[in-house]
Write a structure and sequence with these properties.
The chain is an alpha+beta fold. Helices cover 20% and strands 34% of the residues. It has helices spanning 16-21, 42-51, 71-76, 125-136, 158-163, 209-217, 227-236, 263-268, 274-283; strands at residues 11-12, 25-29, 32-37, 53-57, 62-67, 90-97, 103-111, 115-120, 141-144, 148-154, 177-182, 185-190, 199-205, 222-225, 287-294, 305-307, 313-323, 328-336, 345-350, 353-360.
């Protein structure tokens, strides 16, 4: 008789005790106990972030330091983005690809003065670390920053709130970084996030994370926000979630992420999967990620089949649910590329019943990033 291997115990972020104190409902997510929502609920947390400011614990994400004289060039060889064009304290959203052009992970890369700071997805951080060490070898030193937490302050009031603690932070440009002191602790702050709203991500020493979070939550504009609203916010913003909308079976072109391919990188190639990706860029693809608006109240959730009005299979939903800012169901998914024009009628098979829907432009709500 073979006994089942016990599941690994769930990890906890440095803010775990604070989440419990705030009444969060905790759920397993990417190997961690994470707050899915607080007493006000997902709908209230979502709308508050859109109107004021929400504070998210994203400490489960992987933070890494990449150092070495050739680290920038070496990392660029593994992604389609133009990292060499980054000025110090600037950042870029980019992708790790496999040899078939499939997406191993999406990540943020920030160029500091002498090194790179990476933020990768929680479920992929161990695989990413192994992949980077294998592919970079001695060209760069990779250090996982396990002694740091990561907070995201998102929403139209985020800049005014953070300005009360850091002079001049409101002038920081989108996709730009700066090193600041918060509550006596050195932090790396980037003007970025994954809600479609203006906001900041704050990398803070783990030992000071609770104090910094409590300092921000003491402001009346700020409320704690859980994973539920984080998901509905990013869906409304038309942003991909790894493992759902993108994975090793999807390419940047299919996913509508061709903008991540730098002009120079597209001309030179040389990154993993370049032959596939550049051919798709030139010739097109057979399936494409689109926005979908069901016309009835029933939401079309992940894996819901998408069919044409005659019932022929066109694709499937990869993310779907209720859009609080929209007041109705929204979804993203992959469909036959002949059916991607906005307004194209579709149907989604919800509980076996074909329900009318249509293709819409992404994002569902306008991005409100600070451009200066």
């Amino acid at each position: 008789m073979t006994l089942p291997v016990a599941a690994a115990p769930l990890k906890r972020t440095p803010l775990y005790a604070l989440h419990r104190e705030l009444g969060a409902k905790m759920v397993p997510f990417a190997g961690y106990e994470m707050p899915v929502h607080y007493p006000p609920g997902i709908l209230s947390e979502h709308l508050h972030t859109r109107s004021q400011a929400g504070l998210f614990d994203v400490s489960h994400m992987g933070q890494m330091r990449l150092a070495g004289a050739t680290s920038l060039v070496s990392l660029e060889a593994l992604v389609p983005g133009d990292l060499q064009a980054l000025a110090p304290m600037r950042m870029r959203y980019t992708l790790l690809l496999n040899e078939q052009g499939g997406i191993l992970d999406d990540l943020m890369a920030t160029r500091l003065e002498r090194e790179l700071f990476l933020v990768v997805n929680a479920a992929r951080k161990d695989a990413d670390l192994a992949h980077l060490r294998d592919r970079l070898g001695s060209a760069a030193t990779i250090e996982p920053l396990e002694d740091r937490a990561l907070l995201a302050l998102q929403g139209p009031a985020a800049a005014s709130v953070l300005s009360r603690f850091v002079n001049g932070i409101a002038r920081l440009g989108f996709m730009t970084a700066t090193e600041v002191t918060l509550d006596g602790r050195k932090c790396l702050v980037t003007r970025s996030g994954y809600t479609g709203e203006d906001g900041f991500e704050i990398s803070v020493p783990a030992t000071g994370a609770t104090a910094v979070a409590e300092m921000l939550l003491a402001r009346p504009e700020v409320r704690p926000i859980g994973l539920g609203a984080r998901d509905s916010l990013r869906l409304e913003a038309g942003l991909c979630l790894y493992g759902h909308d993108i994975d090793e079976t999807t390419t940047p072109i299919e996913a509508g992420l061709s903008w991540t391919i730098g002009k120079r990188r597209g001309a030179e190639g040389g990154f993993p999967g370049a032959a596939v990706v550049l051919r798709q860029l030139a010739e097109g693809v057979t399936r494409t990620r689109v926005g979908i608006r069901p016309e009835e109240r029933a939401p079309a959730r992940e894996d819901t089949p998408v069919v044409d009005p005659a019932g022929a299979k066109l694709g499937q939903v990869t993310s779907g649910g209720f859009g609080p800012s929209i007041g109705g169901p929204i979804a993203m998914g992959y469909v036959d590329s002949r059916y991607t024009a906005p307004g194209t009628p579709l149907a989604v098979l919800v509980r076996g019943s074909a329900r009318p829907a249509r293709v819409v432009r992404l994002p569902f709500v306008p991005h409100r990033y600070y451009r200066g």
